[in-house]
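--- STAGE predict ---
source: upstream dedup step, 1 unique chain passed
mode: sequence only
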Amino acid sequence: MEPNLKQFKHLSLLMLLIGLLMINHVLAVQAQATYRVGVNEGDVYIWEVKELRKHEFSKVFGFEPFFSLGDQIRMKIEQIIESTDGGYTIVAEFWDYGTDWNEKGEIKYYSVPSSPSEYEDNLFILTPANKFLEEAMKSLPNSYSLDDTTITKLSVNFTKVLEYHSKGILYSETYINDDGIVMVKVEGTFRIVPLGYSYIIFMLLSIVIVIMKIRKSNLINIKKS
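--- STAGE serialize ---
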């Protein structure tokens, strides 16, 4: 049992060290005053219509939606161009609802603001996304509110909810009427680690704790027998 116990202790110390190093990395990134683009050239993103109530939609907007439940849109980032002011232009190939993904998509250009004060419900924002949005809130009107990386905007007949991925790309967009009914929700299919490094660190520490509890339980059972 001695060698196994030593190996377990070494493994636990190694995982704790990795966790501490990652925490240090996250704190160092957050301490930086500058923001950076979080997506990469070649990235592919897909969004899907997850909720749709056509009657409620047409009542508020005055026209029928041109998409149906389950429809998808697709985007591939072709080029990221950095400007002199610290902002970026993202060149992407885009496939709208109902288009053939085997054919060439439409080339679109998306401006990524260099400063949080320039935020205007953008598809892309700079990262760290939560820090960027916190700073943006200082310049936004009272109709906006923020919960981590989710922006809520109150309009005359509806509420718009924008949730951003940790990579600084819009993850979901939801429109809710004044009765609290979701008219339409479009959500990304690309969420992998929702909380980024924080989630990884949490999982590493959780694994260490579980292993320690199991090891302790095994030792108790051995003593009892």
